[in-house]
Amino acid sequence: MKVLLFNGSPHNQGCTFTALTEIANTLKEEGIDSEIFHVGNDAIKSCMACRACANLGKCVVNDKVNEFVELMEKCDGLIIGSPVHYASSSGATVAFLDRAFFSASMSGRRHIFEHKPGSSIASARRAGTTATLDQLNKYF
To answer: Which secondary-structure segment (H or E) carries 100?
Structure first.
């Protein structure tokens, strides 16, 4: 069994990474493999709803989103981590996940996410975690 841990923070080893690392350590204690996928600070284009993914089998924008979907196909679960920016998920996280879930659904690869356990975490200094978790959990 393997769980993909999504790090939506622009900081490679920031607070969101630290929380995901704790989760990875707990999973390891239970005999579950995991991998942290870091979005980074590359520009993530939002979904254009062009529906080209229906014919291509992947998103027309060839970036980390397609790499993530390929990794997710081989994983048994997903944990989404995002920092809180102005009482919601980071913009990169939302743009990334919108494209990943939409392209998988439109290309007939919905099974990549279906019936797999999922959870989310939010890393915040102040308020906004409840709204962020609500936003992230809607992907599941």
So the answer is: helix 91-106
Cα separation, 125 vs 25, in Å, equals: 23
Q: How many CB atoms lie within 10 A of CB 45?
A: 14
Q: Distance between CA atoms of 83 and 41, rounded to whole angstroms?
A: 13
Residue 44, number of CB atoms within 10 A of its CB: 22
Q: Cβ of 50: how many Cβ atoms within 10 Å?
A: 11
pTM greater than the 0.90 cutoff: yes
Could you report the per-residue pLDDT of 82-127, keeping only the tens digit for each? 999 999 999 999 999 999 999 998 888 878 899 999 999 999 988 8
Looking at this protein, which amino acid is placed at residue 99? Answer: R
Sheet holding 33-38, edge to edge: 33-38, 2-7, 77-83, 118-123
